[in-house]
Design goal:
single chain, about 260 residues, alpha/beta, Rossmann fold, 5-stranded mixed beta sheet
Length: about 260
């Protein structure tokens, strides 16, 4: 074989090898993209839950810490874990936001899957370790609902088929942003339930406001806390009900009336 022919053969061989390498590289890129594409990393849960915690100006640090303590204690309670395990998937996905004004909401704990004692305890610790990040800006319940709805809809492909719920706790009526009932109605139209935990320390009739303007959707209900000191007891009861999705008879009647006005 001539030197020219041998050189040409080697060039062709190197060309074929380069093409194979390029195809392998491209296939690896495509597989990596598919593995990270939305819908490929799905997680089965029974409930997606947004915990929207009031951080408005009326909530001083003592009151804010009582809210944090109440949520942390609840997720360490065996009754909450029992409620989680009672579902078909035996797991829920939870995130925590702090809210004040119409455009002042911060997701302070990312979506977390809770399915056993270890994950529940870790989530409770995360709640305790997360500092307050908002302090003023008014009380926009509508902003809290809109923000919670966005978080739920943006993550719906990660948690397909789950019930979607926003848990709004607060000590005042909406005084900033659009009316709360408009945000509620938009969320309900997107298949989201809004439950309420009104704290009556400053506004004794806040439960009526929450009933008329905040809660809505399938199975919607509220549990009231008379004071911040009773918040832990109220939030424990509320979490058990909404995780298990079996409201007591009184709340079911209230929810049915609420749904009838949507």
């Amino acid at each position: 074989m001539s030197a020219w022919a041998e050189t040409d053969r080697l060039r062709r061989a190197r060309g074929v090898g380069a093409m194979k390498q390029a195809r392998s590289w491209l296939l690896g890129v495509v597989l990596a993209w598919l593995a990270g594409a939305p819908g490929w990393a799905q997680t089965s849960v029974d409930l997606q839950l947004v915990l929207a915690v009031d951080a408005s100006g009326s909530v001083n640090q003592y009151r804010f810490d009582l809210q944090k303590q109440g949520y942390a204690e609840a997720f360490r309670n065996p009754r909450v874990l029992k409620a989680i395990r009672s579902g078909i998937a035996g797991a829920i996905a939870v995130t925590v936001t702090q809210w004040t004004g119409p455009d002042l909401q911060i997701q302070v704990i990312d979506w977390t899957v809770i399915k056993d004692e270890r994950s529940a305890s870790a989530f409770a610790a995360a709640i305790e370790d997360t500092p307050r990040q908002l302090f003023s800006g008014g009380t926009s319940v509508s902003g809290a609902i809109d923000h919670g709805a966005t978080l739920l809809l943006d993550s719906a492909r990660t948690f397909p088929g789950a019930r979607r719920t926003i848990d709004v706790s607060g000590d005042g009526a909406n005084n900033r942003g659009r009316p709360a009932h408009l945000a509620r109605d938009d969320a309900v139209r997107n298949g989201i339930t809004i439950n309420g935990l009104p704290i009556l320390a400053l506004e004794p009739n806040l439960d009526r406001y929450y009933y008329d303007n905040v809660i809505g959707g399938p199975g919607a209900f509220m549990v009231t806390a008379q004071t911040y000191e009773t918040f832990a007891e109220a939030v424990l009861k509320k979490l058990i009900i909404e995780i298990a999705a079996r409201p007591p008879a009184r709340e079911r009647r209230s929810a049915s009336a609420r749904e009838g006005r949507q």
